[in-house]
Structure formats: C-alpha cells, structure tokens
Amino acid sequence: MTISHYSVIIIGGGPIGLACALEAQKKGLGYVILEKGALVNSIYNYPTNMTFFSTSERLEIGNVPFVSNNPKPTRSEALEYYRRVASSHKLAIHLFEEVQTVEKQENNKFSVTTNKRKYTADNIIIATGFYDIPFPLNVPGEDLPKVTHYYKDPHFYAFQNVLVVGAQNSAVDAALETWRKGANVTMLVRGKEIGQRVKYWVRPDIINRIEEGSIKAYYNANILAIREHEVDIETEEGNITLPNDWVIALTGYQPNLNFLRSIGISLSNDEVMAPLINEATFETNIVGVYLAGVICGGMNTHRLFIENSREHATKIISSIVAKS
C-alpha cells in the first residue's frame, strides 16, 4: 500500500481547519484535511434554525466575503459559505475519515493512521474543536433512547413532555423552539438564573416565557433519575417526579484531550487542562505539532471562537514556512 506524504496534515475540517488549509495552499505547501464527519461537522450539528451571535464578516476565512441576508447569519448560510470556500479553492479534504493515531518517527516525521489509510507528514495541525464529547448527566436512565445531548429540530417534539437541561444558548433555543411547536416544556437549571452569555435578543424572550408560566423552570435543580415515562428531579422545594417523553440534556461539550495526551502534548495541571503551546506560533511541546482554534483553550471552551482564532492559521503556517 502506498503511503501518501504531506508537508502538513490538518486534523479537523471546521472553519479553522479550512483557514489553515487556505494558508498552506497560499504558501505552496502540500497538505490534506482529515475530517471524521461532514464538512464543518460541528456547524452541521447545530440546531436547524440557529442564528449566530457573530456577524457574517467575523466568520469569514481566507479573505472570502461572507454575505448573509441579515447581519447575523444562520446555520444554513454558514454551511453554504464554507462549502463555497472549500469548492472555490479546491481544498484537499478527506471527509468521514477519522484519525486514530499520530506518532512521531525517528526521522522526525509523523505517521498518521486513520480508519481508512496511513499517511506521513512533516507537520501536524490539530483543529478539532470541542463539540464531540458531551458532559454526561451521570444519572440512572441516561442511556435511554429518549435522552439526547444534541438538539436539531423542534417539530419532532410537538405535543410531547420535554425536559431541557441547561441554561445557555443551546438550551434556551431548544426550550423556546419546542414550546412554540406545541411541546410542554420544563427547564432544569443547575444555577440560579438563565445564563448571562445567552444571546441578548433571546434572553428576555425566555425570561418572559418563564415568568408568564408558559415554560416551567426549576432553578438550583438537579436531575436524579430518568425512566421511560418520567423523570425525578431535585428542586429547592424538594424532590418531584414529572411526566416525560424526551430529555434534551444540553449540558455542554468538551474537547478530546485524551487524543492530545496520546500524542504526548502537555496539558496544564489545573482544571482548565489547557494545552501548553507557544503563543506566537501555536506549536506544542511536540516539535512539528500545532494546535488551532478552540482546542487551544482546553476546558475553557468559551474563550476562543471563529472570529478570534482565525489568525491562528496565519501564525502556524508562517512558523512552518520559516522552519522549512
């Protein structure tokens, strides 16, 4: 079997992975993107009716204009934009190909094994984001088919008893959209209020729906157990049982730090577990391995976004070119 060699292998086909590919292409470097899912897989898995908090120009990569119908683009507009970027620049992308191992060889090149084939590379860029691993509820019944950690479309939940766990943007969107399609919605909020980071044009809407009683919310509450037709929750007034058809547990997501550890990348010794990188070049303690995008923040997934990590691509490729 012939093993393909590249100057740069980019792991992750999200916006920042695409930005890295655009820079590599611009500098004449041989590269390939390896993406385990669809193009910009995280955005594809966002709720169907989602609107971004950022404006379209702040989501642009590679100086390709992003024109949307409104200042804040929708999920479908973003998917169309990143497809256009990949197509117009003929980016080298292998979709639905999952990287399993990355190993440094004695000649300082890297061996990369996927679920389909093997490669070698001079440099590795990891731009895998954090949307793959949800935080578990750790309660009995979490493995029932009625429980999901991802929310897509509201119609599915029409006229059903729905429990939404969470208080940030995704949970608020799920609660409002399913309620507007006829679901009987209850929110379980672990803290004392709806999250302060919720989109400013949405937060008053959910608060008003809760105050008028259209959506029931339990604050400082926890889920205790999930059964086929009921859920037990702990509230400030005591434990209660609710009739339930579906649990949408939007408790947040975490990066695949075990993958970084398997390569030998050092993480900070605190709860953030941030990868140790050169802030000027984004190179890790493994020479030739770079991180790009939100993965640089470790468990602090709210520090980096598309708009403030696009520059990672330029700095990384500049470092690679300078070394070569």
Please tell me how large the radius of gyration is: 22 Å
Order of helices and strands: EHEHHEEEEEEEHEHEEEEEEHEHH
Helical element count?
Answer: 8
CATH superfamily of the largest domain: FAD/NAD(P)-binding domain
Task: Count structural domains.
Answer: 2
Beta-strand portion reads 15-25%
CATH class of the largest domain: Alpha Beta
Shape: elongated
CATH architecture identity of the largest domain: 3-Layer(bba) Sandwich
Briefly note the structural class of the backbone: alpha/beta
- Biggest β-sheet: count, sense, barrel? 7 strands, mixed
Separation, N- and C-terminal Cα atoms: 28 Å
Segments where pLDDT lies below 50 for 5+ residues?
none
- The CATH topology of the largest domain corresponds to FAD/NAD(P)-binding domain
Number of strands: 17
Would you kindly provide a brief summary of this structure?
The protein is an alpha/beta fold and 324 residues long. The protein has helices at residues 15-26, 41-44, 75-88, 169-180, 203-211, 257-263, 306-309, 311-323, and strands spanning 4-11, 31-34, 93-94, 99-104, 110-114, 118-126, 133-134, 147-148, 161-165, 184-188, 216-218, 222-226, 230-235, 238-243, 246-249, 253-254, 289-291.
